[in-house]
Amino acid sequence: MFDTENDLTTEQRAHDLALLTVQAEINRNLISQLHTEEKSADLDVYALYLTAYKDTLEAVNKDF
After folding, report:
1. Among 17, 26, 28, 46, whose CB has the most other CB atoms within 10 angstroms?
2. Its domain of life (predicted)?
């Protein structure tokens, strides 16, 4: 009934959700810049991804 060959690993789930988190933060940052007319935005995408990945992996491991 279930196709276990195509199931995602917890690492893949965490990766996908971390990417969404990074995209959401970039969007939030850009919208904030538009509202404040501030043009400088120092955003360390890798650090944001890594934090989101680790936090998400910990949470996903509790459910899967």
Report:
1. 17
2. Bacteria
Residues 56, 11: Cα–Cα separation, whole Å:
9
pLDDT tens by residue, 7-44: 899 999 999 999 999 999 999 988 888 788 766 667 89
Whether the Cβ atoms of residue 43 and residue 55 lie closer than 8 Å to each other: no
**Single pTM value for the model:** 0.78
The Cα-based distances of 59 to 18, 26, 52, 56 in angstroms read 12, 22, 11, 5
End-to-end CA distance of the chain: 19
